[in-house]
């Protein structure tokens, strides 16, 4: 990371998203950070503003995502070089306990959300010469990073079905694996920052 680039980081209110945003800012890049609640996100992650980043309110489950991101990029000068689709949450429960509405919102967040963001930024990225085979002719490099188990708030910020857990699952491997996952500890945030610097 030598020349300054403009980054868009969705879900920057989470530990992982905030670490990505802060690492990019510390390396001299510009960062547009997104969160569903910017006021709370800025309070929880003050270094993003202190380091020169900016926040925009964005719920990627909303169809208005593409327009909001387009406006934010235009406001930032019409240039976007790096996009980190990090927004998401976990809906934990058995299929029979989840309502169709809950599944639809989850699907809209983790599937349609990244698509909406990409639809907004790709025209700008093509213009700035900034996925893989499809975008290779435009000089756009696509990377899927799977960091594994990290000390984040992912497991404490999960959503359970409104119906609760079916009693039939109490004491089953599914329930036990869920409890174990919540206790799993991964590498520290400092280690994560070192990994991100390699990108």
From TrEMBL:
Q: Which UniProt keywords apply?
A: Oxidoreductase, Signal
Q: Spell out the Pfam families in the cross-references.
A: adh_short
**SUPFAM superfamilies the record matches:** NAD(P)-binding Rossmann-fold domains
The molecular function terms of the Gene Ontology recorded here are: oxidoreductase activity
The UniProt record lists the keyword Nucleotide-binding: no
Q: Extract the InterPro entries matched here.
A: NAD(P)-bd_dom_sf, SDR_fam, SDR_oxidoreductase
- Signal peptide range equals 1-21
> Hey, which family's this protein in?
Belongs to the short-chain dehydrogenases/reductases (SDR) family.
User: What is the protein's name according to its record?
Assistant: Short-chain dehydrogenase/reductase SDR
């Amino acid at each position: 990371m030598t020349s300054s680039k403009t980054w868009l980081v969705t879900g920057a209110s989470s530990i992982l998203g905030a670490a990505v945003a802060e690492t990019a800012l510390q390396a001299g890049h510009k960062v547009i950070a997104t969160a569903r609640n910017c006021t709370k996100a800025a309070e929880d992650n003050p270094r993003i503003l202190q380091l020169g980043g900016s926040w925009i309110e964005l719920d990627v489950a909303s169809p208005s995502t593409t327009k909001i991101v387009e406006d934010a990029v235009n406001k930032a000068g019409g240039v976007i070089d790096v996009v980190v689709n990090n927004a998401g949450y976990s809906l934990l429960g058995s299929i029979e306990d989840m309502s169709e509405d809950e599944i639809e919102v989850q699907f809209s967040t983790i599937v349609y959300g990244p698509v909406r963001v990409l639809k907004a930024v790709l025209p700008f990225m093509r213009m700035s010469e900034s996925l893989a085979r499809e975008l290779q002719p435009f000089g756009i490099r696509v990377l899927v990073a799977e960091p594994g188990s990290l000390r984040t708030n992912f497991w404490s910020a999960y959503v359970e079905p409104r119906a609760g857990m079916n009693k039939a699952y109490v004491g089953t491997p599914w329930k036990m694996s869920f409890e174990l996952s919540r206790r799993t500890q991964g590498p520290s945030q400092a280690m994560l920052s070192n990994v991100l610097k390699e990108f």
